[in-house]
Design brief:
By secondary structure, the protein is an alpha+beta fold. It has helices at about 10-15, 30-45, 50-60; strands at about 95-105, 110-115, 120, 125-130, 135-140, 145, 150, 155, 160-165, 175. Helix 2 runs antiparallel to helix 3. The protein starts with 7 loop residues before the first helix and ends with a strand.
């Protein structure tokens, strides 16, 4: 990302009406976060609430997903402000770790049933659920049930249920966000 979030207003004033967000070979959470953030920026320009405070918030949000460090503004506005990718690798402030798989979703009760396959999760953890049809669902764990008992932490091998507000599907992947 060249991180043009801070000059989207100027790009729109210059006559740009379509923004292409690069998402090839990127995870669903990357595509979700980047498109959501730029949509919020464009909407705030249209309703005249675009501000430096919002830009800072959006930049912070964009840093949570894959990036190699931002080349703020690139060569836009006649300025060269750094190098394109001044460092190798991912500079995201949040990382995701695969935890397990959804075995079933109880639609009426809005509860996901999961097989914890690799590590552990606990109450108040931030999780991400992804799947080809589901897309991306983010939740904070406020309840974990294992064998009809409320628990604070689920570990590898546990079969658990967690309340999930949005519909998810069998075989969706469960990730821990850190």
């Amino acid at each position: 990302d060249l991180c043009t979030i801070g000059i989207v207003d100027k790009l729109i004033k210059a006559g740009i009406s379509i923004f292409k967000i690069e998402g090839r070979a990127r995870s669903p959470d990357y595509v979700y976060t980047v498109t959501k953030t730029y949509k919020e920026a464009i909407d705030s320009i249209n309703n005249k609430t675009y501000s430096k405070d919002k830009i800072k918030t959006w930049e912070k949000e964009l840093k949570t997903v894959f990036n190699r460090g931002f080349w703020n503004n690139g060569y836009y506005l006649g300025k060269k402000l750094g190098e394109w990718a001044n460092s190798y690798g991912n500079k995201a402030t949040k990382k995701k770790k695969f935890i397990g798989i959804c075995l079933h979703y109880f639609t009426k009760k809005k509860i996901g049933y999961f097989n914890i396959q690799t590590s552990s999760i606990k109450l108040q953890d931030e999780i991400l659920i992804t799947g080809p049809t589901t897309g991306i669902v983010k939740e904070k764990i406020n309840s974990i049930v294992n064998e009809k008992k409320s628990i604070e932490k689920a570990k590898k091998g546990d079969l658990i249920t967690i309340p999930i507000k949005e519909k998810i599907r069998k075989n969706d992947k469960l990730f821990l966000i850190k």
